[in-house]
Amino acid sequence: AQSVSQHNHHVILSEAASLELGCNYSYGGTVNLFWYVQYPGQHLQLLLKYFSGDPLVKGIKGFEAEFIKSKFSFNLRKPSVQWSDTAEYFCAVVGAGSYQLTFGKGTKLSVIP
Amino acid sequence: NAGVTQTPKFQVLKTGQSMTLQCAQDMNHNSMYWYRQDPGMGLRLIYYSASEGTTDKGEVPNGYNVSRLNKREFSLRLESAAPSQTSVYFCASSERWGPEPYNEQFFGPGTRLTVL
After folding, report:
1. What angle do CA B20, B21, B26 make, to 5 degrees?
2. pLDDT at B36 (0 to 100)
């Protein structure tokens, strides 16, 4: 069965700081990977996705993530965060053949102005 | 194009009461899903419908039933609500049950349910 680990429960940063949120998955085969964001009181929105090809994927609002197959990782990065990035971030994986999306437990990001 | 819609937005129930959460999508998607979100637990899949006419259990199906009414609508029923079912419920849809790019899921705004 596939699983996802997000190592940080709550990250607090000042505006303009750089961000990296960790995500590791366990699955032996081909995967598709996603990062979703949930702003306070809102539903989940897709930030970016990795299907195949270039392991460095760029998403909305200046976010990017790198798929490192050898490390089973898909970390989310942003060079300079803003107060409006305050939200909860979820990593998710779909293993080829299962088609079922499995979420990590989420990382809450608080950005201090 | 509303995407995925859910009703109601909020609901308070007493233990033992029943209710149905409604979900509809207008993207002509074949697959639909129900998740629950609890603090510190992420989202967990309750049931899914890979295509019209089929439903399957996810990770946490106990205490729930679902109906795929037609291609657009997928409802979640709590027959006898319990406090442990206090949660935020999200419906989602994807183009179909299959590999990329069809497995990208689109989420509704959620229903916040409290069971007293």
Report:
1. 130
2. 96
